[in-house]
Amino acid sequence: MFSRLGTRRALLAGCLLFVAVTVAGCSGNYSVRPQFFWDSLFHPSPAIVNGLGLTLGISVVAQFLGVVLGVFAAMGKMAKFWPFRTVANIYIWIFRGTPLLVQLSFFYYGLAAAGLFKWPAIVIGPVDILPNIFAGIVILGVNEGAYMAEIVRAGILSVDPGQTEASKSLGMTYGQTMRRIVLPQAARVIVPPLGNEFNNMLKTTSLLTVISVFELYNTFSVAAGHSYATFELMAAAAVWYLLLTTIWGFVQSRIERRLARGTATGSSGPSGPQGPGWRSRFFGRSNVDAKASGIGGH
Amino acid sequence: MSAPDIAPGGLLGAIGGVPRPETDVVVDARDVNKWFGRLHVLKDVSIQVKRQEVVVIIGPSGSGKTTFIRCINHLEKIQSGRIFVNGHLIGYREAGGGKKLVEDKEKNIAAQRQEIGMVFQRFNLFPHMTALENIIEAPIQVRGTPREEAVVVGRALLERVGLAAKENVYPNQLSCSSTSRPPPSTPK
């Protein structure tokens, strides 16, 4: 958490940087055309809307896939049966140990070049998914699963072993114990880092440019290529990403409060304090912080 | 629906299965030995508990009381001996003409544990479920009891221990003495 002084310094530094960049951008032959910036924010072209939808859609589906794979990989890593552990370990080792960019190129272009596998187009009801988008979702999801595995494992380990024993003593099977008792409690520990992961995912989708997916970044990149308004358009792209991650921040704090039921922060009654709200999350300052920094109040 | 029947022998008395007709022995431990690494915790423990008997095991801390109870539920492995509940060998099956003990399949052990009630020292209530949800969880998930029926039985049980007003309260909102009252570890 930033202290008040820290926040002011950060703001000042940000302003100075902005001015410096603007001045640098204006020097030479480059003349800023602000309408490119404002138009792509307030009158976005269909291509931008489409790119925004793709970024959001791919992120959600890939993250979902990543969570599912992560749960299985985490359970595999903790399994008694050693082949499960080996498979999980190798999966995590490979996908955490190689760059996503290399994975995308290898699994999309590499496999096709060697004639081993060509990604098909997928039709789900009214939705047509192009091969490169399908490949992008799967590779992002599989990559994400390797990171989620460690997060889920930490969550499972955080649950009191007594909970597993109590479930066992009731005659529950391993699956029931996991699904009904352990994972719901692990979720509380998993969700904050999961929020980080999804925030990352929203931005990482921009790497799909390499397999020609016209998500948000690629759309702006192409538009910049046509108009040479790189400065304005990339600034606008940044604002769109910032908007997505900010909205996600609000959603995440809501989810966390809901999951806190039955715990010290969540059980103080409907009117009681229920964990950090979006204000304290956004401005990163509580009363304690203000006192500690020595500049309380105005 | 009236208050649920609870067998007079308490939790162990409620065990189903086929009792051996010739004896009334419910729990039958024979020469049980248990080591934790090099520490020999249970040394040739034998005990027979008859139907309707209430048995109290007393001893200094660290003497293996809890370990023994956990062995009856197969939450701990034993290295030698046999434990029977209602004539069923718990946690193992005999191999090599009854000379060797092999650990039973998880599914079979889970089925045996359904019949054995246990209250833990730290209770181990499920913190993400209310008092009522704690009680109905096992009957619904393990026994396949219809939810409405489980709720009726669960409410009756809460009423018996004076917690009827607390059915929608989470364990960490209950007072210390109250937490020991919901019987979560007794499937029905």
Q: Shape of chain B from CA axes?
A: globular
Structural domain count of chain B = 2
In whole angstroms, the N-to-C terminal distance of chain B is 15 Å
Major beta-sheet overview of chain A: 2 strands, antiparallel
Radius of gyration of chain A: 23 Å
Q: List the uncertain runs of chain B.
A: 1-17, 184-188
Describe this structure in words.
Helices cover 73% and strands 2% of the residues of chain A. Chain A has 298 residues and is mainly alpha-helical. Chain A has one domain: MetI-like (MetI-like fold, Orthogonal Bundle), CATH 1.10.3720.10. Chain A is globular, with a radius of gyration of 23 Å. Chain B is of the alpha+beta class and 188 residues long. Chain B has helices at 10-13, 65-72, 106-114, 131-143, 147-160, 176-179, and strands at 25-36, 39-50, 80-85, 88-89, 92-95, 100-103. A four-stranded antiparallel sheet of chain B has the order 2-1-3-4, covered by helices on one side. In chain B, strands 5-6 form a two-stranded antiparallel sheet. The radius of gyration of chain B is 18 Å and the shape is globular. The two termini of chain B are 15 Å apart. Chain A binds chain B through residues 160, 162-163, 165-166, 168-174, 176, 180-181, 184-185, 261-264, 267, and chain B through 73, 75, 106-107, 110-116, 118, 120, 122, 124-130, 137-138, 141-142, 170-173, 184-185, 187.
Topology, element by element:
The complex is a heterodimer of chains A (298) and B (188).
Chain A: H1 4-26, H2 34-42, H3 46-77, H4 82-97, H5 100-113, E1 122-124, E2 127-129, H6 131-158, H7 161-169, H8 174-204, H9 216-227, H10 230-259, H11 278-283, H12 287-293
Antiparallel strand pairs in A: 1-2
Helix pairs in contact in A: 2-10, 3-4, 3-6, 3-8, 3-9, 4-6, 5-6, 6-8, 7-8, 8-10, 9-10
Chain B: H1 10-13, E1 25-36, E2 39-50, H2 65-72, E3 80-85, E4 88-89, E5 92-95, E6 100-103, H3 106-114, H4 131-143, H5 147-160, H6 176-179
Antiparallel strand pairs in B: 1-2, 1-3, 3-4, 5-6
Helix pairs in contact in B: 4-5
